[in-house]
Amino acid sequence: MKRSHWITYAIFLMISVGGGLLIGANNIPGPWYQSLAKPSFTPPNWLFAPAWTILYILIGIVGARVFRDPQSKDLFGIWLAQMVMIFAWSPLFFSWQNLEAAFAIIIILLLLIINFIMSARHRDGLSALFFVPYALWVAYASCLNGAIAFMN
User: Is the pTM of this model over 0.85?
Assistant: First the structure.
């Protein structure tokens, strides 16, 4: 792989992983989240950081792949839109404590991820495949967000 390819991947990993860490550090769940009624399928708190770190790595790799492909402008647009949604979700949910708005954002995010997978599957199967765990996790997180909003 050329040096410029490595630089592109490094930049996209910094955007996704670094951005995710920054958003997470500035929107800590805290006592408010602990006090919420939660469904029985809520995972332990320690699971979120490693799960999201792995997903942000995959998201960064996919971003670099579609950015470098001149035939994937539409995929890159979807990738950018999902980044906006994922980075908007934590402040809405944890800092502004707006469970309903966060639920709307995560549903839009899930639709964008599914759209990306469906659009990429024939042109860039690896990128589509890398977004499958992301789609599964966000589908789960959507159910969790919806249940928490309903219960509170």
Answer: yes
